[in-house]
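Hi support team,

I submitted a single chain yesterday and got back a structure, but I'm not sure I'm reading the token output correctly. Could someone confirm the output below corresponds to the sequence I sent? I've pasted both exactly as they appear in my results page.

Thanks,
R.
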Amino acid sequence: MTTPQSNTLLNFSAGPAILPATVLEQARASILELDGTGIGILEHSHRGPAFTKVINDARDTCRVLGNIPDDFEILFLQGGASSMFAYIPLNLLPEGRTADYIHTGAWTRKAIADACLIGDARTIWDGESCSFRHLPEDGELQPTDDPAYTYYCSNNTIYGTMWPAPPAATGTLVNDASSEMFSRPIDWNVHDLVYAGAQKNLGPAGVTLVIIRKGLLEQSRQDLPSMFRFDRHAEQGSCLNTPPTFGIHVMGLVFKWILEQGGLEAMHDRNLAKAAKLYESIDASGGFYTGHARPDCRSTMNVTFACPTPELDTLFLAEAQDTGMRNLKGHRSIGGLRASIYNAFPFEGCEQLASFMNDFAERNG
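Hi R., thanks for writing in. Yes, this is the structure output for that exact sequence:
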């Protein structure tokens, strides 16, 4: 029997994405039997002691890993990160108030559209005019007076942009960190709610991690169905209904794996080094490769670039496929190429891609 990731393929998928091999091995074993219980994780009751230990361990490890203060609640929810587009304004945007949204790509576009169905959501910066190649300076934002919250997405998988630091905001700051969660430290002094879908950097699809300041739980509307209230999920320890037990288990294993790698500071250093290898190849190509994101806004998770012509993009993908590099095609909305190099992606894989990029440019430039 082969072990997970024992082959030589490199998976650059933007999500669902690569997971650590050791985590996959632990997850495979736990499907048959969890911690000597004689029953696999998929078959344990979410109310039983075995899973209670799983979710408590995942929550505790998450708090240690993220250096999350005690005045934040950690929730494991279903519905995917896109469900937060509605959850957040439902809970945090009361009638008569406005919410400020910084529009930096496809995911904020969807979040704004859903929020407008629920309340008064204003766009205080719009990146459409620059094709989302860069992020705004704080002075470019046009905030409303006393917003209920300010919403931004810290990393954009499609366009390959990442905020180097959180935007300046008055009051509550909400961050969709789906594609970069726990790739670097988080400043909890300025954030009030950070959420992420698991399938980019934390685990399998089906779990949404929500870290919310406890004071915000008191603002949850009382006239919402229970499943849409942050406070009800918090009261029930993320077990208001049957949670995604397997996904939470794997997420807990990923948290432990990141700690074993040295924690968020060490992971951030590794991610910077991985991304630098690819950006060096782009910048040294003499214009053969064009990066989508402006250099000061480049992502460490999703490196987006293109060859001089679509035909060369196609050839690049075919040759890369032949060498064992998969899922390098750019998002359909912008085309080109994209290398997603999340936490579990190895540095050696970035070296291999950079070498291929250099050779391809030399042969086709």
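A quick pointer for reading it: Confidence is low (pLDDT under 50) at residues 1-6. Let us know if anything else looks off.

Best,
Support desk
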